[in-house]
Write a structure and sequence with these properties.
Elements: H1 2-7, H2 12-18, H3 25-37, E1 41-46, E2 49-54, H4 58-74, H5 78-86, H6 92-107
Antiparallel strand pairs: 1-2
Amino acid sequence: MDILIARGRASVAEIQAAMDDAPSYSAVRATLRIMEEKGHVRHEEQGATYLYLPKVAPERAKRSALRHLLDMFFNGSPEQMMAALLDGKPSPEELDRIAAMIERARAQGR
């Protein structure tokens, strides 16, 4: 999905070539078919080739992936996730930006 979002559209071969330690062509194609059945991607025919496109806007995909990570690894706790992120040693500038985001969220009543 990351490859499709970054490229906008891609063939099975292009997706496979862009993957580290890529599975077989058939496995990539089967995964795309499943993702299409679930409504995550769609395809367009270009001659004999199918070009796959994401159906989900990048921002929505990011939120969905983040929610999945939050639920899967941090028991739904933003505090636990933030603690793990802060353990990665953010720069002083990043900490300032994070603090500003927290203040904006507080001001908006979130």
